[in-house]
Amino acid sequence: MMAIIYMGLGVMMWLPMANVFALPSTARRVLGAVFIFYGIIRFARTYRQHFQRNKTHDAR
User: Does the predicted TM-score (pTM) go above 0.85?
Assistant: First the structure.
């Protein structure tokens, strides 16, 4: 769930209406990219941890 929130926040910071945050345009875009990247990393970790089968346990 948090991965989706981080990616959504990153996309929101890229949109023109993100002037709610008192940041310059460049800083807002960099921070948005960091949020999107971190959301992708969290999603990948969660997917591997919960949805991929553990091959060491399957071999037994």
Answer: no
Burial of 58 (C-beta count, 10 Å sphere; 0-12/13-18/19+): exposed
Q: Name which of 39, 43, 38, 29 is nearest 12 in CA terms.
A: 29
Give pLDDT tens digits for 3-51.
899 999 888 888 877 566 678 888 888 998 999 999 999 999 988 888 8
Region of 35 please: left (phi>0), alpha (psi -120 to 50) or beta: alpha
DSSP H or E run through 1 = none
Q: Which two tokens stand for residue 20?
A: 């709610």
